[in-house]
Q: What sequence folds into this?
């Protein structure tokens, strides 16, 4: 199973840069980039911080995709 | 906050705050000087000394009957200094790491874990080689140096995979 992320869409909806989002949730810009491109799956804590920042349920930002 | 560049192979000095700069610079300095002391201890009269002697003397071989190059007192103090430098470096590095985000710590923890596993596997092979007389006895210095090199290599590979 793969995790599909909607962080990029949520960020562009709010017209935020990666650096602005990174500063808001206390991580580096590259961490946001790695999450958006699917190379890095964040911890529950960071996922909840992102969800709170976008005022969305965490399961709309991160969904499980069943392969095959 | 640590911001990697070159796909994780280097970092932006300007992205670090003052405290992080002091912690990182001091820790890296201690590691560098500690490694220099360690190699000095490991190679007092060893193959690198031989190489240096030959280069410096235009190819002349070092005398066969040379004794230990470091006196026992120097050896003892250099060992103490090396241990102290690595201990200070480890404490400062852990303080620096605690200020970084989870991706940094995930890459780092993986490099420690996989680096230690590979070092242990290499040590097992080394000990097997020693028992059958193919290799010399491993020393603590070589094991520590191998661990540092392997952890750094794993970091580089992981950093290239996870960071852009």
A:
């Amino acid at each position: 199973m793969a995790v599909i992320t909607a962080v990029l869409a949520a960020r562009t909806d709010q017209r935020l840069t990666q650096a602005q989002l990174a500063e808001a949730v206390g991580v580096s810009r590259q961490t946001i980039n790695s999450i958006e491109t699917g190379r890095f799956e964040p911890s529950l804590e960071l996922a909840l911080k992102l969800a709170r920042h976008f005022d969305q349920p965490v399961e709309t930002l991160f969904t499980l995709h069943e392969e095959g | 906050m640590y911001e990697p560049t070159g796909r994780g192979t280097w970092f932006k000095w300007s992205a670090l705050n003052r405290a992080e700069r002091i912690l990182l610079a001091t820790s890296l300095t201690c590691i560098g000087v500690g490694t220099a002391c360690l190699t000095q201890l490991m190679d007092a009269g060893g193959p690198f000394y031989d190489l240096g002697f030959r280069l410096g003397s235009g190819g002349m071989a070092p005398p066969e009957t040379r004794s230990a190059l470091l006196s026992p007192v120097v050896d003892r103090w250099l060992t103490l200094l090396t241990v102290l430098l690595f201990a200070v470096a480890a404490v400062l590095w852990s303080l620096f790491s605690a200020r970084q985000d989870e991706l940094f710590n995930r890459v780092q923890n993986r490099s420690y874990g996989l680096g230690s596993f590979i070092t242990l596997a290499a040590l097992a092979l080394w000990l097997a080689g020693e028992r059958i007389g193919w290799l010399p006895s491993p020393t603590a210095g070589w094991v520590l140096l191998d661990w540092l090199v392997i952890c750094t290599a794993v970091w580089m590979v992981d950093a290239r995979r996870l960071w852009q």
